[in-house]
Write a structure and sequence with these properties.
The complex is a heterodimer of chains A (about 600) and B (about 240).
Chain A (H helix, E strand, L loop, with lengths): L4 E6 L4 H15 L4 E5 L13 E7 L11 H7 L13 E8 L8 H12 L3 E2 L4 E4 L7 H18 L20 E5 L2 H8 L5 H19 L21 E7 L8 E8 L12 E4 L5 H11 L6 E6 L4 H7 L1 E4 H8 L9 H10 L3 H11 L4 H7 L7 H7 L7 H7 L6 E4 L10 E12 L5 E6 L3 H16 L9 E5 L9 H10 L8 E5 L9 H7 L1 H9 L5 E6 L2 H18 L3 H13 L3 E6 L1
Parallel strand pairs in A: 1-2, 1-3, 3-4, 4-5, 4-6, 16-17, 18-19
Antiparallel strand pairs in A: 7-11, 8-9, 9-14, 10-13, 11-12, 14-15
Helix pairs in contact in A: 6-9, 10-11, 17-19, 18-19, 19-20
Chain B lengths: L1 E3 L7 H9 L6 E8 L6 H7 L3 E5 L13 E8 L33 H5 L4 H9 L17 H4 L24 H6 L8 H5 L45
Parallel strand pairs in B: 1-2
Antiparallel strand pairs in B: 2-4, 3-4
Helix pairs in contact in B: 1-2
Classes of the chains: A alpha/beta (about 600), B alpha+beta (about 240).
Chain lengths: ~600, ~240
């Protein structure tokens, strides 16, 4: 391999990747060289050659492995691998998870067990980071790292792994290089006819590719024409209607988008990624704070790339479109690394001291309170530490990239060709310190897509559709019972069953609190018959971590009671439904 | 015959159940709506324990103008039972890495199949591409009882963190902080903000966890605090 350590990560939202990169930097401080790369980007044929491998893996809500380790994990699960396949290798696993979910850190746990079963020796006990802790996964990470360095010192007693004096104060290598182009070189970019929004989307697309290259992720696919992951389509909004009553506190919108000739196709249950646009005032504030000139053109490249590569993979955009289109300056919270780097560039002693404190192990709780618990944005943090002037290439490295927002698609292409509909509730909330924030969430969307699809198939005539049963929990029939008329129509056409096909639970109506779980128990007999005799599948979609679990518990009760079997057997039955994918849960927080 | 318009309806375990009602050597016809880009139906039928799988292109398809196609697959229940054994001749050089033949689920453990392997043979496994014959273990089997436990939500989760007190706090807020009490913000304090420790005006980044000014913008001592338009007034 050539480096002392191999650090492999499986990251869905970028957190595990950040941890992996910070472990690499800490290793460097201890005179250990390392390679940091996503599991799927690593040639697994060389795994057995490694001596010391560190795995950083996050677990998503339903226990799924992150996308960039799925292939690697599949390979490791092969029954044909012998129990001594990884003899000679030592491993260390750190997981990122959330104990609010049933499947807590299962990815890291399974990985740790499988590596051991294949003959790899654990350097130390696996570490499990938990979002529920006050300072999140940092709480478990710091102590685990101390143990890791100690274990590596034991593994290689003759290798000097002490932190060299003064090295902690040094600026690490930046992932990117950025050069402002002179007038002539800049003309090619400035003369390209593209309106502002398109320029911003172009900057996002180009920077997304560059980030993948600079971060050791699997090489992005070749540039096809047409749209797909990382290649957004500019869709027109056909409709944007409020579907909650005017007196209801929540503003929920039904939005219809025209996919026109994009070639985008989807199926019920799919998600639509929408790239948001930033508030122009915030962009202006950021430009003033950083002293960047929006009109200047910059050439960006991954640092350290071979020169022929650099030219090929470099990106040329105006600074203004890069900031507005690609950098999340007033939304996502920065990571600990942001504060680490800011400390290098702050010139006021009290600012430097505070930033170093935030980046340290002792300061992690205070950092969490200032940063993640308050939903602090990059712009706010920069304004709180006004002496720090950060060069552009470093801003690219520490400011989170704008991420698309995911929405469950609420329509079926059969019912609405070339369109995608979404249901979005605009949520106003206060942070712990009473600062106002806004967010978005969706609810019954995937079921509308599913039922529209079935209705369309039925209307086309050739296919028999078994009637469905929709249980819908909301606050009130006239407030937020979304798509009520559409469901009622489906009952009359048989897409939803005539008996028990549409069951609503209103939690704030007539002074009574009725939840979906109550309704499930009321319809125990019918549900039992559907699950056991009719081979029905159950799809549960709910916000907060409790609702899906409560529904499962209610179904267990139904099965136990109606089937007259012990609760434990009912639990087993529900588990079997889940593992054979006849019971699917989509939960979000 | 089993037919469904739901993609993915025929998963391996369901096919396994269907094959259970077949006689040895019996045929099963499976029809399912598949999308053009993802066809794992044949794989699921294979994993369900059937053999001689072939796609039948001449069966019905969904109405024109619709998405995807209806794929028909014909397969046979094998004439042997699970656990059956048959002798495999092992040539010294050509190792069969997955230790199975004719699709029979071998009762041997992976180690037994490899105990004769040389070091280089063992490593060859890593370079072989994953084929449809390669079985994957059930990953849920990896978790022990202990693994399946979730920790109690840590008691410190909702509590304010321990805080390094302001170096020269002389205003009595340190005591309030120690008692876990947040001092109240009054309208006077908005008009004429004061800070004995000097940190309150620097912004949230420098404030104590119980500072009454938390959430408010930076200020200069004595200057009325200006609230920006996207900010709700703090509750009294």
């Amino acid at each position: 391999m050539g480096t002392d350590l191999l650090i492999l990560f499986g990251s869905q939202t970028g957190n595990a990747q950040d941890v992996a990169e910070s472990v690499g930097r800490s290793a460097q401080l201890r005179q250990l060289t390392s390679t940091v790369v996503a599991m799927d980007a690593f040639d697994i044929a060389r795994l057995h050659e490694q001596v010391a491998v560190i795995f950083i893996a996050s677990t998503t809500g339903q226990g799924e492995t992150p996308d960039n380790m799925k292939q690697f994990w599949r390979f490791l699960l092969r029954k044909s691998l012998p129990t001594d396949a990884l003899n000679g290798m030592q491993h260390a696993v750190f997981g990122l998870g959330d104990s609010g979910y049933q499947q807590y850190n299962t990815v890291a746990k399974k990985l740790d067990r499988r590596l051991a079963a294949l003959g790899s020796a654990a350097l130390l006990e696996r570490g499990l980071g938990d979002d529920q802790h006050f300072s999140g996964y940092d709480s478990a990470l710091f102590p685990w790292l101390e143990q890791l360095w100690a274990a590596l010192q034991d593994l290689w007693p003759h290798k000097d792994q002490s932190v060299l004096p003064g090295s902690e104060g040094q600026l690490p290598t930046c992932k990117y290089s950025a050069a402002i182009l002179n007038f002539y070189d800049a003309r090619a970019v400035l003369d390209t006819p593209r309106e502002t929004h398109e320029q911003e989307v172009f900057a996002w697309t180009a920077f997304t590719r560059l980030e993948a290259i600079a971060s050791g992720l699997a090489a992005p696919p070749k540039q096809f024409s047409g749209c797909g992951p990382g290649r957004p389509f500019m869709a027109s909004v056909i409709a944007n209607r409020r579907i909650t009553s005017p007196d209801h506190f929540q503003d929920t919108r039904h939005i219809e988008l025209d996919l026109a000739s994009s070639g985008i196709v989807y199926e019920p249950g799919d998600l639509l990624n929408i790239l948001p646009r930033q508030n122009p005032e915030a962009v202006q504030r950021f430009l003033r704070r950083t002293g960047l000139d929006a009109q200047s053109v910059v050439r960006l490249a991954a640092a350290g790339a071979e020169s022929a590569d650099r030219v090929r993979q470099s990106v040329q955009v105006t600074v203004g479109s890069l900031v507005a289109g690609a950098l999340d300056i007033h939304g996502a919270c920065p990571k600990r690394f942001f504060f680490e780097i800011l400390a290098h560039f702050a010139t006021e002693p009290h600012e430097t001291e505070r930033l170093l404190y935030f980046a340290s192990s002792e300061g992690r709780d205070d950092l969490s309170q200032y940063n993640t618990r308050e939903g602090r944005t990059v712009l706010e943090a920069l304004e709180d530490f006004p002496s720090a002037q950060v060069p552009l290439q470093w801003l690219l490295s520490i400011v989170p990239r704008i991420k698309p927002r995911q929405f469950s698609i609420a329509s079926s292409l059969r019912a609405h060709p070339h369109q995608a509909h979404i249901t979005a509730a605009i949520v106003d909330y206060k942070t712990p310190h009473k600062r106002r924030k806004q967010g978005l969430c969706t609810g019954v969307a995937p079921f509308r897509a599913f039922l529209e699809e079935r209705a369309a198939l039925q209307a086309a005539g050739n296919v028999e559709i078994a009637p469905c049963h929709l249980y819908f929990g909301c606050r009130g029939a006239n407030q937020d019972f979304y798509y009520k008329e559409q469901w009622q129509e489906y009952v009359s056409t048989g897409v939803l069953a005539a008996d028990g096909g549409l069951v609503a639970a209103f939690s704030r109506q007539d002074g009574r609190k009725v939840y979906v779980t109550h309704r499930i128990r009321e319809h125990a007999q019918q549900l039992f018959s559907l699950l056991t005799h009719k081979g029905a599948s159950v799809y549960i979609s709910g916000s907060a971590t409790r609702m899906p679990q409560d529904v499962i518990a209610a179904l267990e009760d139904v099965v136990a009671q109606q089937g007259q079997i012990p609760q434990q057997e009912a639990k087993v039955f529900l588990k079997a439904l889940q593992s054979s994918r006849r019971c699917v849960i989509e939960a979000w927080s | 015959m089993s037919r469904s318009n739901l993609r993915g309806f025929h998963d391996a375990s369901f096919v396994g159940r269907l094959s259970g009602v077949l006689q040895s050597g019996g045929k099963l016809l499976v029809q399912e709506a598949v999308s053009a880009t993802q066809d794992t139906l044949q794989q699921q039928v294979l994993l369900g324990g059937l053999t001689d799988i072939r796609a039948c292109p001449d069966f019905a398809s969904l109405p024109p103008g619709s998405m995807g196609q209806l794929l028909t697959v014909e397969a046979t229940r094998p004439s042997w039972e699970s656990g059956a054994r048959s002798a495999i001749s092992l040539k010294p050089k050509a190792k069969v890495p997955n230790g199975t033949a004719n699709g029979v689920h071998s009762a041997q453990s992976p180690t037994q199949a490899h105990s004769n392997g040389t070091a280089t043979d063992k490593h060859k496994i890593w370079s072989l591409p994953v084929s449809a014959d390669d079985e994957l273990m059930d990953e849920d089997e990896l978790l022990t009882e202990e693994d399946r436990q979730r920790p109690e939500v840590p008691s410190g989760a909702a509590c304010p963190p321990t805080k390094k007190a302001c170096a020269n706090c002389s205003c009595g807020r340190a005591e309030a902080e120690a008692a876990g009490v947040k001092a109240d913000l009054t309208p006077d304090m908005l008009d004429n903000p004061q800070s004995a420790c000097g940190s309150c005006g620097l912004g949230d980044a420098f404030r104590c966890s119980t500072c009454p000014y938390r959430g408010l913008p930076k200020f200069k001592t004595g200057e009325k605090i200006a609230l920006s338009s996207d900010f709700l007034t703090a509750d009294a």
